[in-house]
Design brief:
- Two copies of one chain form a homodimer.
- Chain A is an all-alpha fold.
- Chain A has two domains: 40 residues, Homeodomain-like (Arc Repressor Mutant, subunit A); 138 residues, Tetracycline Repressor, domain 2 (Orthogonal Bundle).
- Chain A is built from eleven helices and no strands.
- Chains A and B meet through helix 9, helix 10 and helix 11 of A and helix 9, helix 10 and helix 11 of B.
- Chains A, B: This is TetR/AcrR family transcriptional regulator.
- Chains A, B: Keywords: DNA-binding, Transcription, Transcription regulation.
Chain lengths: 208, 208
């Protein structure tokens, strides 16, 4: 694990740059999530990584490139699940349940990256691209919902669009409270337990 | 409706103070939600309200007092629902469903105030008080869930704590995407339609 500091003075000696593109991205995403993307400067990233700004520029052209790589990683995970067999074959309701389950798993596996994606505001070109991709994902899921209603497998008394929003509101809330190691307020749940609870609640409801 | 501006120069003439405590609070909450509580100064509030800082101090002692009143209004709504007959009589599962329905209604009725409450971080005494009250509300709901499981009305194969988190993750997501007047991405739903969809999904599931 790379040694990191953010508290030191401006003249602290930079350590030797042993980062890979991936490990530097992990540091950047942690800082983006803590300070907000807009509130993060290259100076903040330099301090958090413990290397000079010119060393960072050796890896990436700009702060925005780090954002693009980070949200790209989250989006690749989400869209990747849509290409899997479980999302492409069978009845729409089962494909929908598969996608919801895989989305939970991607959220857990890529938690800081998806957290960043869900906080994107749209102030830069990269952010607007990320929002557009998110909308595309939502449309793909909404199509599954419509198809499942048409096939008679989803309740038709619920508004499909509202239900989709609520379903992903529930799933996306994970980034706010789920901590892989557990916390003072709750034991850790595995990705599988989470996915079971999400799909159980969403598709079959809480009532016995 | 009071005339408001935030773009004017620092020397623009202050308008006559026609605010009540409540209408000034509404302006403050809008600014808190837009800029973040930490990022809002009395100067920002003065510009948004179009009255001088000293006029604001005529209504409230501090920025923190505005926060306390605002989150207090949200908390009063939430805790108030726990005292209603539907939350106090009958089987636990029905009381739980009643509380979820009323929570949705309170969110819609007090949207900016609950939005602010859900964004509280814990940096000030008032914020820590609000977080403590939120935890108290969560415990009251968790007790209902446990009781409903004990009465055999909730599925026992789902982790009650996780399910409660997910349930409120879904409900609380409303503050991120629900707009009473609708938007480019969706028609407006009434509080009743929202509450029907939330309780239908959560208690009976999406499958037909």
């Amino acid at each position: 694990m790379a040694e990191r500091t953010e508290s030191g003075g401006t003249h602290e000696p930079a350590r030797r740059d042993t980062y890979t593109a991936e490990s530097l991205l992990a540091v950047a995403v942690e800082v983006f999530n803590r300070r907000g993307y807009d509130g993060t400067s290259m100076e903040h990233l330099s301090r958090a990584a413990g290397i000079s700004k010119s060393s960072i520029y050796h890896h990436v052209r700009s702060k925005e490139e780090l954002l693009r790589r980070a949200v790209g990683r989250a989006l690749d995970g989400l869209f990747g699940s849509l290409e899997e067999t479980g999302a492409r074959e069978g009845r729409a309701v089962d494909r929908l349940e598969y996608v919801v389950r895989r989305t939970v798993e991607v959220l857990v596996a890529e938690l800081p990256y998806v957290t960043l994606l869900l906080r994107v505001r749209g102030n830069t070109e990269t952010e607007r691209w990320a929002l557009e991709r998110r909308r595309e994902f939502d449309h793909r899921v909404a199509d599954l919902v419509k198809q499942a209603v048409a096939e008679g497998d989803l309740r038709s008394d619920l508004d499909a669009r509202l239900a989709t929003r609520l379903l992903f509101g529930m799933v996306n809330s994970l980034v706010e409270w789920y901590r892989p190691q557990g916390s003072a307020h709750g034991a850790a749940a595995t990705a599988e337990e989470l996915a079971d609870t999400v799909t159980g609640l969403a598709f079959h409801g809480l009532r016995a």
